[in-house]
Amino acid sequence: MANLTKADIEHLAHLSRLELTDAEKDLYAHQLSAVLEYMEILNEVNTDGVEPTAQVTGLQDVYREDVVHDCPKDSREEIVALFPDAEGAALKVPAALIHNKAASMAEDDDDEKDFT
User: 3-state DSSP: the chain helix, strand, coil percent, rounded to 5?
Assistant: First the structure.
């Protein structure tokens, strides 16, 4: 029987960079233990001869060629001129993702330094 402890939840929260209250730790220990117990029940089901199934709807991904459409030079220059921060024809935007942010978060942790 899978029974997660408060220490297990604290470890998972640390790895996930989550701050949990004691009440949340107790709640998640109970809920995640129930999920793992259900998985143990599912592992007992005889699946011999059952093909792996990724989806059951029959839908398929539709792909198209990635075609670049050039815009007229005067339109491009007008757009660049209106943009608040540009360098040449490149439009500069604030960073949405910071490369290796996880490593900078772990600087305080002695046991985890390499996030490559």
Answer: 45, 5, 55
